[in-house]
Amino acid sequence: MIMTGDSYHFGDVRGPVNAGSGQQYVTGRDQTVHQADREWLLSEIDALRQALDGLRLNAQERRTAEGELHAVGFALDRDKPDREGAARSLEAFTTRLQAAGVLASAGASVVGALSSIAHWVGPSAASVLALL
User: Fold this and answer.
1) How far apart are CA 81 and CA 103, in angstroms?
2) Can you tell me whether residue 26 is helix, strand or coil?
3) Are 57 and 100 in contact (CB under 8 A)?
4) What is the tens place of the pLDDT at every residue in 20-61?
5) Which are the contacts of 22, defined by CB distance < 8 A and separation ≥ 6?
6) DSSP of 63-124, one letter per residue?
7) What rounded mean pLDDT belongs to the chain?
8) Can you tell me the distance from the alpha carbon of 57 to that of 60, in angstroms, rounded to the nearest whole number?
9) Confidence category of residue 112, pLDDT binned at 50, 70, 90
10) Over the Cα atoms of the chain, what is R_g?
11) How far apart are CA 97 and CA 6, in angstroms?
């Protein structure tokens, strides 16, 4: 790896490259998630789950949103996270909040957590960022 200023060059790497804080271990084509990243992701999901209590959702919307958050956590809480699955569930969750009319008033903690998770998940979660 060569670093010049804010530019990083990784040889002839092609495709999406997620670079951020924390540690990532790459062996061949497999990626694993460091425990600190896993704990951080799950804490962001827990923050979203807690925020649901303050949102004006009917019982069905709340149950569905909780199920979608559970699916996000299930996809990410593993050694080899399912980023595509997490992106789909995160998009469904975000779309649910938008359709219920509560996303705009959800507050910075909800938008921040959604944004953070979407950024970590990578390009497959770009649609979530577009909804914010």
Assistant:
1) 26
2) strand
3) yes
4) 555 554 444 555 556 778 888 999 999 999 999 899 999 999
5) 34, 36, 37, 40
6) HHHHHHHHHHHHHHSSSS--HHHHHHHHHHHHHHHHHTT-STTS-HHHHHHHHHHHHHH-GG
7) 82
8) 8
9) very high
10) 16
11) 36
Residues 6+ away with beta carbon under 8 Å from 34: 22, 23, 24, 25
**No. of helices (H) and no. of strands (E), the chain:** 5, 4
Determine the Cα–Cα distance for residues 32 and 92; give it in Å rounded to an integer: 25
Chain-centroid distance, C-alpha 8:
24
- pTM of this structure: 0.72
Look at the block and give the residue holding tokens 């595509």: 84
Token pair in block for residue 103: 């996303």
What sign results for the dihedral spanned by CA atoms 115, 117, 123, 126?
A: negative
- Looking up tokens 């949102």 gives 55
CA–CA separation, 65 vs 50, rounded Å?
12
